[in-house]
Amino acid sequence: LKLNMVKFDIVKTVKDVFEIEQWQAEERNISLKIVNPPPKPVFVKGDRNRIMEVLINLIINGIKYGKKQGYVHVSFHDLEDSIMVEVTDNGIGIEKKHLPRIFERFYRVDKSRSREQGGTGLGLSIVKHIIEAHNQSINVRSVIDQGTTFNFTIEKAK
Ligand code: ATP
Ligand code: MG
């Protein structure tokens, strides 16, 4: 994967993705919000288009597997050399036994496969691929019926 590394504002990028996803969120009555929005730009280094692709996938998942009237919240956490971005929904959650496999290509949890929402099961494998190409990490935690949080890191720009 060839990356086009640039310096960009990750907060602005999330806002741009929210705008793109707004109609899908509204269709399912899900609110998109940045929690504790930083007052200033947060500059990071990465392939902006690829990081947008990551955010689009995680946020669409939050919407698709969310509950009606639910939310998808994004928050930013300042680490030593990186920024951690967390995407949290209060949706259907993922059973513990499935968690280690959701980043595999074509892997979909049965319960969601039967849902009317489409998809191929490729989204998260692409997301992981992009984050690893940046030498960063992605993690997930989830509680069935309560919700899911994905977090990934991205290098701070100097
Ligand atoms: P695609 O992203 O290719 O359109 P997809 O959403 O099914 O299809 P992934 O994004 O790779 O594929 O996700 C894999 C599976 O992990 C999903 O099918 C779903 O079962 C589960 N999953 C992913 N995100 C969430 C979430 N936020 N809440 C609950 N389940 C999730
Ligand atoms: Mg997906």
Automatic annotation (TrEMBL):
Origin species, per record, is Mariniphaga sediminis
Residues covered by the Histidine kinase domain: 1-158
Instruction: Give the protein name, as stated in the record.
Output: histidine kinase
Recorded superkingdom = Bacteria
